[in-house]
C-alpha cells in the first residue's frame, strides 16, 4: 500500500542557492514519505486522493539545524559576556551535570524537543550531555515526537570538572551501548560526539574513531572556534600540526560522514583538508557573536566548494529558531562586507539554502522538494494584509525576518504530520 500525501499551496524551495523555485498555487505529492512531484494541475491518478488545501499559505522545506546542545536549553541567553572557555566553566558544565538525573532530563528534553519542533526544525544534529542515561532519554523523546535527528552522548575524559567527565572506558562503553541500541532506528540515530579536542585524550579519540568505523556512525564535534581554544589544542597536542589533525589522526575527520561546528580560523591547508575529506562545516552566527569567537569567513568557504550548513548552537546561540540563524547569517555577511568591499553578502536564497538543503545534505536527500527528497515541510501562514499585497518571495523573506512559531501552522517529517 502506498502512503500518499498531497498538499496544495504556494510552494517555495531552493534547488540551488542562487534562486528560489516558486510554484504558485500548486500541488506537492509525497509517496511513502518522498517527494514525487509538484503539479499545477493534479494528475489523473491522484484524483481520488484527499488534498490538504492550505490555500494562500506558503509550503517550504523544514529547517535543518546542524549544531545545537539540548543540555544547554535552559541556559539560553545567559553568561553572554563570557568568551567560550570561561562560559563553559562558569555556566555550561554544571548545567550539563544535572542530566544524570533522568527525571530532570525528561522534563528539560521534552521542553527542548517541543520548542525545536514548534519553530520548524525537522532535522537536527544534537549534542546531549556526557550522561548515557540522560542521552537515552533524549533519543526516546525525539523518537516519540517524530523529528529526524542525530544525537550524541558527549565524550569527555579530561580538562573539565570531575563531576562531568568520565573515564575513557566509561565514555566508550556508554557510547557503544547507545550505538547498539539506536543505530537501526529510521529517524533518530546516534552520532559520535567528542565534545572537542581539549576535553579528550588521544586514547578516547582513538577508541571513538574505531567505533565510528566499526559501526559506520557519523561524527560531530567543534573545530577552531576561538583563539584561546586553538592555542590550548596546540599545547595539549604538540604532535599535531593543526587542530583538525587531532581528529583526522584518529579517523574522526571524514572517515565516516563528519560535521564540525564553527571552523572559524582555518588556514588554506586546513580548508583543503576539510574539502578533501568532505567534512561539513556549521556556521553558527549567533554563537559567533555572543561568545565573541569571531566570524566564520563563510563566503570564502562557499567559493571553495566546502559543504556548509547552519546551526543555532544553543546555548552559545540564544535562539532555537533556525529562521533567526538564517537572518543572522545574512546580517553577519553584511557586516563583513562593510569592512571588506570584495566580500559579497549572502542573498536571501543563499541563506535559506544553507538552512534547508545545505545542511540537509548531511542527512541525505533532505531540505528540498526535488523528486526523491524526503518530504519534510512547513506550512507558513502570514497576515492577509501582507499576502494580498506582496510577492511570494517577499512574504517568505518577511517570515524569515520577523516570523516565529505562531506563523507555522503545520510540520511534516518524511510525509508524517507532527
Ligand atoms: N566547544 C566545546 N564545547 C562547546 C560548547 O558547549 N559550545 C560551544 N559553542 N563550543 C564548545
Ligand atoms: Fe556548540
UniProtKB/TrEMBL annotation:
Q: Which InterPro entries match?
A: Amidohydro-rel (IPR006680), Guanine_deaminase (IPR014311), Metal-dep_hydrolase_composite (IPR011059), Metal_Hydrolase (IPR032466), Metallo-dep_hydrolases (IPR051607)
Q: Which residues form the Amidohydrolase-related domain?
A: 59-416
Enzyme Commission number(s) of this protein: 3.5.4.3
Q: Which SUPFAM superfamilies match?
A: Composite domain of metallo-dependent hydrolases (SSF51338), Metallo-dependent hydrolases (SSF51556)
**Which Pfam families does the protein's record reference?**
Amidohydro_1
Q: Name one GO molecular function term.
A: guanine deaminase activity
Origin species, per record, is Clostridium ganghwense
Top-rank taxon: Bacteria
Q: What does this protein do?
A: Catalyzes the hydrolytic deamination of guanine, producing xanthine and ammonia.
Per UniProt, the keywords (alphabetical) are: Hydrolase, Metal-binding, Zinc
Cofactor: binding comment: Binds 1 zinc ion per subunit.
Question: Which protein are we looking at?
Answer: Guanine deaminase
What protein family is recorded?
Belongs to the metallo-dependent hydrolases superfamily. ATZ/TRZ family.
Give the pathway listed in the UniProt entry for this protein.
Answer: Purine metabolism; guanine degradation; xanthine from guanine: step 1/1
Q: Which cofactor does it need?
A: Zn(2+)
Asked whether the keyword Iron-sulfur is assigned, the reply is no
Q: Which reaction does it catalyse?
A: guanine + H2O + H(+) = xanthine + NH4(+)
Tell me the organism's taxonomic lineage. Bacteria, Bacillati, Bacillota, Clostridia, Eubacteriales
Amino acid at each position: 500500500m502506498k502512503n500518499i500525501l498531497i498538499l496544495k499551496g504556494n510552494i517555495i524551495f531552493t534547488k540551488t542557492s542562487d534562486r528560489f523555485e516558486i510554484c504558485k498555487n500548486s500541488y506537492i505529492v509525497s509517496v511513502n514519505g518522498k517527494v514525487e512531484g509538484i503539479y499545477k494541475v493534479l494528475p489523473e491518478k491522484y484524483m481520488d486522493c484527499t488534498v490538504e488545501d492550505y490555500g494562500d499559505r506558503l509550503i517550504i522545506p523544514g529547517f535543518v539545524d546542524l549544531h545545537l546542545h539540548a543540555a544547554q536549553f535552559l541556559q539560553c541567553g545567559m553568561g553572554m559576556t563570557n568568551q567560550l572557555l570561561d562560559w563553559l566553566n562558569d555556566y555550561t558544565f554544571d548545567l550539563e551535570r544535572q542530566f544524570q538525573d533522568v527525571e530532570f532530563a525528561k522534563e528539560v528534553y521534552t521542553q527542548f524537543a517541543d520548542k525545536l519542533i514548534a519553530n520548524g526544525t525537522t532535522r537536527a544534529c544534537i549534542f546531549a550531555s556526557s550522561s548515557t542515561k540522560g542521552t537515552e532519554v533524549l533519543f526516546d523523546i525525539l523518537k516519540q515526537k517524530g523529528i529526524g535527528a542525530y544525537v550524541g552522548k558527549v565524550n569527555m575524559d579530561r580538562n573539565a570538572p570531575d563531576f562531568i567527565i568520565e573515564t575513557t572506558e566509561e565514555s566508550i562503553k556508554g557510547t557503544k551501548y547507545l550505538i547498539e541500541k539506536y543505530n537501526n532506528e529510521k529517524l533518530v540515530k546516534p552520532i559520535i560526539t567528542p565534545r572537542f579536542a581539549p576535553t579528550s585524550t588521544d586514547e578516547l579519540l582513538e577508541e571513538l574513531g574505531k567505533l565510528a568505523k566499526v559501526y559506520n556512525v557519523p561524527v560531530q564535534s567543534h573545530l577552531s572556534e576561538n583563539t584561546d581554544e586553538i592555542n590550548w589544542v596546540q599545547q595539549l597536542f604538540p604532535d599535531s600540526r593543526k587542530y583538525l589533525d587531532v581528529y583526522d589522526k584518529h579517523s574522526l575527520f571524514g572517515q565516516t560522514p563528519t560535521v564540525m561546528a564553527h571552523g572559524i580560523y582555518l588556514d588554506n591547508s586546513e580548508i583543503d583538508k576539510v574539502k578533501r575529506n568532505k567534512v561539513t562545516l556549521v556556521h553558527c552566527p549567533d554563537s559567533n557573536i555572543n561568545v565573541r569567537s569571531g566570524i566564520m569567513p563563510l563566503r570564502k568557504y562557499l567559493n571553495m566548494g566546502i559543504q556548509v550548513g547552519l546551526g543555532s548552537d544553543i546555548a552559545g546561540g540564544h535562539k532555537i529558531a533556525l529562521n533567526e540563524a538564517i537572518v543572522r547569517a545574512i546580517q553577519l555577511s553584511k557586516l563583513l562586507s562593510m569592512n571588506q568591499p570584495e566580500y559579497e553578502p549572502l542573498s536571501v536564497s543563499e541563506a535559506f539554502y544553507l538552512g534547508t538543503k545545505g545542511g540537509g545534505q548531511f542527512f541525505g536527500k533532505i531540505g528540498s522538494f526535488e523528486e526523491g527528497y524526503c518530504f519534510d515541510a512547513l506550512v507558513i501562514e502570514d497576515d492577509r494584509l501582507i499576502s494580498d499585497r506582496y510577492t511570494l518571495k517577499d512574504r517568505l523573506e518577511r517570515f524569515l525576518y520577523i516570523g516565529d512559531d505562531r506563523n507555522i501552522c503545520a510540520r511534516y517529517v518524511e510525509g508524517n504530520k507532527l
